[in-house]
Each structure stands twice: as structure tokens, then as C-alpha cells.
Write a structure and sequence with these properties.
The protein has helices at 3-15, 20-29, 35-38, 51-54, 56-72, 90-98, 105-108, 118-127, 212-226, 271-277, 289-295, 298-306, 311-325, 330-333; strands at 18-19, 79-84, 109-114, 132-134, 145-150, 159-164, 167-176, 179-184, 205-208, 228-237, 246-249, 252-254, 264-266, 269-270, 282-283, 287-288, 334-340. It has 352 residues and is an alpha/beta fold. Bound molecules: S-adenosyl-L-homocysteine (SAH). S-adenosyl-L-homocysteine binds at residues 28, 36, 42, 50, 52-53, 85-87, 91, 114-117, 120, 150-152, 155.
């Protein structure tokens, strides 16, 4: 067992099984042993690779979409440019390079990053020296907010519930023979899941993300009050169904309970929950990442970049474009939802 696993086994012996959300929060962000707290997990040598690490084109077109949203709202002369969970800072670095040609955009932007990991904060500061780190959205100045979050919401801790004839049983992490083992609580009615009675059968699993509504509401309130837009990109779909918890280590799927703190844990994002929490801002329709990137002109950008490439670079460039956009790769599994003010147009590439 890992050092974090040993701590958890002792805690379970003292106080009993814990909800999956407690388990996931410690695995990812425990100050000493948490997965994100202790390493840079991204890239080819790391455990997984994200869209901005696959190609510079992703951050470029996302940055230009935010700049266009800023222009569409009258180019306010002071605004917050924010990213949730910026990883290595690659997306934002590419976005800033691409938007240099948008007059006034960068002069008006105050760059703010929300990042829980000290290791990744240090990396982001090196890459983005003008950025200010904040612990939460509360700490952002009151101003129009143009925000991006790529593969951030999938890292937020989830709870899982199994439908039962009498109500819902929660998946709880307990211990058996010195191993961490998921089990089920006694069934209980749960008002928060009343809306899922109609579309589930006994035995079905549904997931909730306790920190999501508060976070999205904060973004929505700022956008409604001051203007702005948010682009939320992640894997998932409209409404959660089934067990989507997954653990990845060294680019391979592993058992989520085998090595706490050493594997990345994620779950699919329930975009319906995001849309429900967005008020008083509006949420766009959910759009597949491939469609979104094509609408933003990623193929044009790919052609321009291809002009000066040698054969080997060109091969990997074409593969990267395909990986980001093709429905068999990230193009369909990943989705994009925008938040925007009641009176404003939706962000580029998305439909109201
Ligand atoms: N957006 C980046 C990184 C995605 S990995 C990319 O696309 O490459 C998830 C990121 O969210 C990491 O930077 C991680 O440290 C951060 N993170 C995870 N949970 C967080 C939380 N609760 N608060 C702030 N940052 C968090």
C-alpha cells in the first residue's frame, strides 16, 4: 500500500468508510501525498496528455475565441482573463501568443490562475510571469471575466450512488484484508437525486459532483453582473449515467483503489449540472470538441503551420490535428459548453 493508502486505512479503522469524494480529494490534493500536489503528471513522459499538450493549435484557437467574445462584448478596457487548473500553463501561453495581434486585448487583461498544486503553480509562474495565482474564484477582482477550464472539472471529487428499491446506496471506500475496497451504504432516500428516479432502474449508478454547483454559480454570477464568458472543455456528456471513475498511471488504466496518490483519478463531467448551476448567466448547447475546433478554424491554422514543416514534423502535426478533432479520438468524447450573459451572443463556435 502507498503511504497515503496507509493513512487512509488507519482513518477507516478509526472512523469507518468514507464517501468516494473524500477519497478522491485526498488522492489528488493531499498536501503531502496527493497526486497533483507532488508532481507534474502531464505530457508524454507523464501519466496522461491533454489537448494543449498535443498541439499549440488548441490554446491558440481557444485564446482567439476568448478574444472574439471580448470584442463581441464591446472590448471592456479592464477584464480578468482566468484559467482553472492550468496544468503546465501551455494553453494560456499559446492563447497569449495567438492574441498578440488583437489590439487592446492583452493590455486590458489581468491574468489570474486558479491552481491547487504548488508544483504546478511554480511551473505556471515560470511560463506565465505576469499571472497572479488565487486560491479560489472569490479572490478575483470584480470585473468582466473571460475564463477557460480544460480538463479541470473532471478532477473534481465525485460521489456515486446506486439506485435501490428503497432509495439510494452510496459507494463508500472501506477496508478489507488491508486493502481499500469500495462498498455500499444502507439505502436512504435522497432528495438531491429525485430527478433521477425517472431515468434509472434499481442497480444503476449515478454520480454527483458536490463542489461543481457552487463553483459554476460563482462564474455565472460574475459573468451576469460584469460581462464575460467561460469556455468549459472536458470529457463527459449531458447527465451522468454509470460508473465513470477512472484511474490512469503511465498512460494506462489502473484500479482506482490500488495506489492512492500515485494515479490520476477523474470522472466524466455532467454538463447538465453545469447548465443547471449557470444562472443568472446562460449556458450554451453542449458541442463536441471536434465541431467546436473546426468552427474556430483549426484546420486553416493547421494548414498555415504545415507550410514550413519537414516530413517527420508534418506527420505528427497531422496526427495531432486528427487526435484533437476526429470523432474516434478526442473530437466526440470531449465536449465544450460556454457560459455567457443573458444579453450577449454565445462565445464563438457555440450555439445559444
Ligand atoms: N488544463 C491543463 C491541466 C489539466 S489537469 C491541461 O489541459 O493540460 C487538472 C489541473 O487542475 C491541474 O493543474 C490540477 O493541479 C488542477 N486542479 C485539480 N483539482 C483542483 C482544485 N480543486 N482546485 C484547483 N486546481 C485543481
Amino acid at each position: 500500500m502507498t503511504p497515503l493508502g496507509d493513512l487512509m486505512l488507519r482513518r477507516i479503522a478509526a472512523t469507518g468508510p468514507m464517501p468516494l469524494s473524500d477519497y478522491m480529494a485526498d488522492c489528488l490534493l493531499h498536501p503531502e501525498h496527493g497526486y497533483y500536489s507532488t508532481r507534474d503528471p502531464l505530457g508524454r513522459a507523464g501519466d496522461f496528455i491533454t489537448a494543449p499538450e498535443i498541439s499549440q493549435m488548441f490554446g491558440e484557437v481557444v485564446g482567439l475565441a476568448l478574444a472574439q467574445a471580448w470584442l463581441d462584448q464591446g472590448a471592456p478596457d479592464r477584464f480578468i482573463l482566468a484559467e482553472l487548473g492550468p496544468g503546465r500553463g501551455t494553453l494560456m501561453a499559446d492563447a497569449l501568443r495567438a492574441t498578440q495581434g488583437v489590439p487592446g486585448f492583452q493590455a486590458a487583461a489581468q491574468l489570474h490562475l486558479v491552481e491547487a498544486s504548488a508544483t504546478l503553480r511554480a511551473m505556471q509562474s515560470e511560463r506565465l510571469p505576469d499571472a497572479r495565482h488565487v486560491d479560489s474564484l472569490d479572490a478575483l477582482p470584480e470585473a468582466p471575466l473571460f475564463l477557460v477550464a480544460n480538463e479541470f472539472f473532471d478532477a473534481l471529487p465525485i460521489r456515486q450512488f446506486q439506485r435501490d428499491a428503497q432509495g439510494w446506496r452510496e459507494v463508500m471506500v472501506g477496508a478489507q484484508d488491508g486493502e481499500l475496497t469500495p462498498g455500499l451504504s444502507e439505502p436512504a432516500p435522497l432528495a438531491a437525486l429525485d430527478h433521477r428516479i425517472a431515468d434509472t432502474q434499481p442497480g444503476d449508478i449515478v454520480e454527483t459532483c458536490p463542489s461543481l454547483p457552487g463553483l459554476v454559480a460563482q462564474i455565472g454570477q460574475r459573468i451576469a453582473l460584469h460581462g464575460g464568458a467561460a469556455l468549459i472543455v472536458d470529457y463527459g456528456d449531458w447527465r451522468s449515467m454509470g460508473d465513470t471513475l477512472q484511474a490512469v498511471q503511465g498512460h494506462n488504466r489502473v484500479d482506482p483503489f490500488a495506489a492512492p496518490g500515485l494515479a490520476d483519478l477523474t470522472a466524466h463531467v455532467d454538463f447538465e449540472a453545469i447548465a443547471d448551476a449557470a444562472a443568472p448567466a446562460r449556458a450554451t448547447r453542449l458541442t463536441a470538441q471536434g465541431v467546436f475546433l473546426e468552427r474556430l478554424g483549426i484546420t486553416e491554422r493547421a494548414r498555415t503551420l504545415a507550410r514550413n514543416m519537414d516530413a517527420a514534423t508534418l506527420d505528427s502535426h497531422v496526427a495531432a490535428h486528427r487526435r484533437l478533432t476526429h470523432p474516434d479520438q478526442m473530437g466526440h468524447l470531449f465536449k465544450v459548453m460556454g457560459l455567457f450573459p443573458e444579453e450577449g451572443p454565445p462565445p464563438p463556435g457555440l450555439d445559444a
